[in-house]
Structures are given as C-alpha cells and as structure tokens.
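seq as requested:
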Amino acid sequence: MTAKLKIDPYGFREYDARWVYEKDINQLGIENLGKGLGTQIIKHIKKNNPRVIVGHDYRSYSEEIKAALKKGLLSTGCNIEDIGLSLSPTVYFAQFNLDADAVAMVTASHNENGWTGVKMGIKKGLTHGPEEMKELKDITLNKNFIEGQGSEKQIDGFQKIYKDDLINKNKIKKKIKVVVACGNGTAGIFAPDILRGIGCDVIELDCKLDWNFPKYNPNPEDLKMLHEISKAVKINNADIGFGFDGDGDRVGVIDNKGNEIYSDKIGLLIARNLSTTHKNSKFVVDVKSTGLYSKDRVLLENNCETIYWKTGHSHIKRKVNTENALAGFEKSGHFFFNQPLGLGYDDGINSAIQVCHLLDNQNKMMNEIINELPNTFQTPTMAPFCKDEEKYQVVEGLVKLVTEIKNNKMKIDGQEIIEILTVNGIRFSFEDGSWGLIRASSNKPSLVVVTESPTSDERKKKIFDFIDDLLKKTEKVGEYDQKI
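struct tokens:
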C-alpha cells in the first residue's frame, strides 16, 4: 500500500513554513514541498541546475525531514550543497560564501518539540516574504512541478568557516564576562566558541545539545529562559547575559544586574553606538518598537534617520536592503546588520557581538548604559482574539476611525494625535511622544496592541483604555492573551 500524502495548507506562513511533523505533514508532504521549492527557484533564476544550500537544526527528526526535502529538490534538477548541522544564519552566510543560488534550512526555530519547518530564500540575504510563500503554496498544493535531475554533495567543515568569519572581524579588547544560554538548542555548538573567540570570558548555560529541550524551549522571549540567565548572571557576577533561540537568528539580553532589556531598547543602544562612527546612516525598526528612536538626541546629532516599518523579520530584512540602511531592529529580537557589519540577514550571534562592542567601547556597565536612555512606560505586546477572516477588515475600520479623530483634533488624555503611520495597521503618536498601535497579527487569529508613553504610566494606560474602547465597539474582538 502506498503512503498517503499529507500537507496542511495552513503550514505555509507569511515568511516560512511550519508544521507539527506527521500530524500536519508527512515525509511525502515534505518531499512535495521540496519539489515546489525547486520549481520556484528554477522559475525565478531561470537556469536548470541551481545550486541550493541546505542545512538542518538539532531535532530528533530534522535529518529525515531534510532527506525528504532534498529528494524533492533533486527531482526538479537542483544541485544540493549540504552543510549539515547549522543555524539559519550559517545557511544564509553559506549562500554568500559559496555564491549559491538559493537556501533551504530545516528548522522550527524556537517552537516546541514535534514542530518542523523550512526557512528559504532565493535572493542573497533575503528570506521568502508573503508573495513568495503564496507562490510556493500554489505550486506545491497544485503539484505544478518541474522535472529534472539534480546532484548532491556534502560540504565538510562549514561550521568552522562560519565561526572564523565572525571571530576574525570582531576581536574585542576588554575581557567581558558573558553568560551564554542556548536552551540545549543548536546555538550551543556555535555561540560559546564564537564569543570566546572574539575575547569574551564565557559561562555556558544549557549549551549541551539535547533535542528534548529538558529545561525550557530555546526562546529568548520565554520567561523561564530569561529567569535562568538572570540567575546565572548574578551568581557569576557577569557583565551581560545572552539567550539564543533554537536556530540562532534571535537573541535576548540580560544586563549585569539580572534585568531583561527589551530588544527595541537594545537596538537603540546599538544604533547610538554605531551612529558615532557611521554618521548619516539609516536604521529600520518595526512598528511595535519604542518611540525613542525618532527623537533620540545621539541619533539626531549624528544625522541618522529611523524608519518605522512592518513587523516581521522578512519585512524588516527587505526594508534594510531596499533603503540601504546600516541596521534594522525588531522588537522580537531579530536584528539585521548591513555592510560593513553584516550581510543583511538576522544572526543572533552577530547581534550579541554588537552588544559586546558597545560594552568594549564604553567604560560603563550595561545597566548604566541602559539607564542613559530616557525612561518610558510601555505595555507588553497584547493580542486580543479576532477571527482570521475578520481581522484585516476590523483594522481597516479602526484606521478610518483614528484618522477622523486626528482630523477633528479630538483629545485623548488631554493630547492631540499629531502623526499617523499606516504601513502596518495604525500607529498614532501624540504631542508628548506617547503612542498606540493596533495591527492584525500575521500568524494567528488576533490583533496586536501596544502603547508607550515617555510621560507617565497613567498616560500609557489611558491610551490603552482608548484603544480597548474602540475594539469593544467593533463587537468582533474577544479576550486578550494578556492585558494591563
């Protein structure tokens, strides 16, 4: 009896593909995904035997998934260069280093055990965005596959090439004491070596590879992981703590006192540090990020511009590329560095290295550096339920409503809305620099709400109450995952 094909269409996400293995997709489904991707690559680069870099993360089933994916790619005529166990940024780097045509990385990033997925890209340094994912989904589900004959070769020792590249460009003078936490994910065989290589004194925390993730998921937004790093920083009297996600493209940061620093604030500190030697630069941040960037004294003195753009690593990566920005920062911990600091893609270890440069350049502790930023009162990211098929129309209606409120000069907590940004939902700003955001979530049935005020905690809450009231009136928005 032949096995039945299984591939859940919902696994095709906005920037990558993710499924629970064998429940939502089986090996035949993965093989068809490989055929779809191979067909798409050949169609875009218009040559018959494109070279595709393939790698996998450390999970018990990743190698069998990679084998099925490669089988599909080979059947379309792709020539595979397999670099073995890798981080996503290792695969992105390999595309530049080996001058290949495309990449396919088998990873479910920080998702729980049982999940798998593929991150892929054709143009160097960029991963699939919504258009490419829609095209891939159509090719794969409709089985519009090209047939060809590909070849395969193993690239040995690529981990060392990737490590050496980051080490050789980033030596530091100070002996910074660093806690490196990897949640037993793939970053464990990369991050400690690289940070030691640039000159750090490294304390390893859960760096031994274990695909059961016995303590917590390798996710720098996971409170369990952050608490463990915080404890280790205090016990070891470390200068800083870093937490890396499962495929090494994101980092979370804990200061020398054991406090978590939100990624958008870390981004601002890095931007300030870079702006002194890279005057007149552009930075790109996502719409969930702090409003401090636009009015920052140091950035303005160095004639730097900040562009607020759509949330999502694929969107920010592309914007950094098209604007030729020096760097991009996303609230979730994806940071992007363009030449001469990087090649445009997100690499959590390179992000940690930039924080080390920041400490290397200043004669201050991390908590002193963070305290130099103006204090702001910010809500966590809140996600009230809204059906997938309704969320975009709901947001459209709210954009019109808030625009009217601005035009009519209505006041919220005694403040007029002075600026509106609609690249991704609506972000509206007030005279004192306070702001609110309402957008549709790109990967679940919910909206996203954030508010921030540099003035007071009370104003932050008043802006939230204003948004909450608008949402209730739509009668299409349900419970929040968390709220203030």
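The two ends are 56 Å apart (CA to CA).
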